[in-house]
Amino acid sequence: MAEAQNIPAGSTTAGSIAVAAESTVATRMSAPPSFDVADFPVPHGREEEWRFTPLERLRGLHDGTAVASGEGVKVDIEAPEGVTVETVGRDDERLGRAGKPVDRVAAQAYSSFEKASVVTVAKDAVLAEPIRIAVHGRAGSPSATR
Fold it and tell me: Which of 37, 38, 86, 96 has its CA 20 to 30 A from that of 104?
């Protein structure tokens, strides 16, 4: 099994992602990490990694029956000086570079968004305050329904 690594801030994680992906296959479903929902079997709740998950509360994210509706979630980001926050479309090349989904729900969520927030910290920046990211579900307007 691969050893855990400490990755300094500002460094690239490209080599480490492959190591992390190898180690998660043993504890997740046997499928390798992928952005494609079809690469993962549909969980039924009897699998070890899903047995404590109330699948009905996922509202179809696990089996592909989820339908995007409403306004989804609201994302509030408080960023100090030295941090850039952007809203980008699916075609932005930075998206997905931190790693691939390791299960069907994560792949479904990744394939369903239209816009994403990208938070960039300059390589040599020393932040006086933390970056705060709050994700709020819209009450009465679920992001996924049957």
Answer: 86
Read off the pTM: 0.62
Q: Do residues 55 and 111 make contact, with C-beta atoms less than 8 angstroms apart?
A: no
Q: What is the C-alpha separation between 43 and 50, in angstroms, rounded?
A: 7
pLDDT tens, position by position, 5-23: 555 555 555 554 554 444 4
Three-class HEC string of 46-113: CCHHHCCCCHHHHCCCCCCCCEECCCCEEEEEECCCCEEEEEEECCCCCCCCCCCCCCHHHHHHHHHC
Residue 33 C-alpha from the chain's centroid: 12
- Is the four-CA dihedral 23, 108, 12, 14 of positive or negative sign? positive
